[in-house]
């Protein structure tokens, strides 16, 4: 896929997300996001890191977190949320929205996944709607399923995901899961919130995987 096109998608999503965050009220920033470890303030802080993380910074963070990637990213987001106000973080997100720079070891599509999924992490707990563009969501979910980073292969094992709003499907398992591609992306990235809008015999299998129980 053309990198300039992906970068344009990422820029648009980041700017749209900055506008969305700009509309949050003072009480919204302390609400827990779909990333249950983070408040909205901490999630906004995380969104500013992908264009600023260096290889050396990642190494230092990994050492402090004793090799635990999730802990490293969580600690970084919390530290930035203490340092910067919501308004400052929104400014930082806009400042590098069009930057091609990305965190070490990531691909051009990872920042797109980040922006699309975290946009829902912000919107849904607040009872708000944030549209996810279908073409971008198709590219993102395909990448998530192909990448070992997200754990989607294990999460979706034994299923076939079929989009109801796009000409897209993936997987060769016996149990079909049908739904809007945005919801399939949420499931692939480990968000149980996507379960509400999908149907099919594979739904229970993915629900079990998300809850940590056997299917």
Automatic annotation (TrEMBL):
Gene3D superfamilies linked to this entry: dinb family like domain
Top-rank taxon: Bacteria
Pfam family, one: MDMPI_N
Residues covered by the Mycothiol-dependent maleylpyruvate isomerase metal-binding domain: 11-116
Classification via SUPFAM superfamilies: DinB/YfiT-like putative metalloenzymes
Protein name: Mycothiol-dependent maleylpyruvate isomerase metal-binding domain-containing protein
One MF term in the entry's GO annotations: metal ion binding
């Amino acid at each position: 896929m053309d990198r300039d096109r992906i970068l344009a998608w990422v820029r648009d999503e980041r700017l749209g997300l900055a506008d969305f965050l700009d509309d949050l009220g003072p009480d919204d920033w302390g609400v827990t996001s779909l990333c249950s470890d983070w408040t909205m303030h901490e999630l906004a802080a995380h969104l500013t890191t992908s264009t600023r993380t260096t290889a050396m910074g990642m190494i230092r963070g990994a050492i402090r977190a004793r090799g635990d990637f999730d802990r490293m990213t969580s600690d970084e987001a919390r530290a930035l949320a203490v340092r910067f106000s919501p308004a400052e973080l929104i400014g930082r997100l806009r400042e590098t929205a069009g930057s091609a720079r990305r965190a070490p070891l990531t691909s051009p599509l990872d920042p797109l996944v980040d922006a699309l999924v975290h946009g829902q992490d912000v919107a849904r707990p607040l009872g708000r709607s944030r549209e996810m563009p279908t073409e971008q969501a198709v590219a993102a979910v395909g990448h998530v399923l192909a990448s070992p980073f997200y754990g989607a292969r294990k999460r979706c094992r034994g299923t076939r995901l079929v989009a109801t709003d796009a000409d897209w499907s993936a997987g060769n398992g016996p149990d079909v899961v049908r739904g809007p591609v945005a919801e399939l992306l949420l499931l692939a990235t480990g968000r149980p919130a996507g379960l509400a809008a999908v149907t099919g015999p594979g739904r229970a299998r993915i629900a079990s995987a998300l809850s940590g129980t056997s299917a």
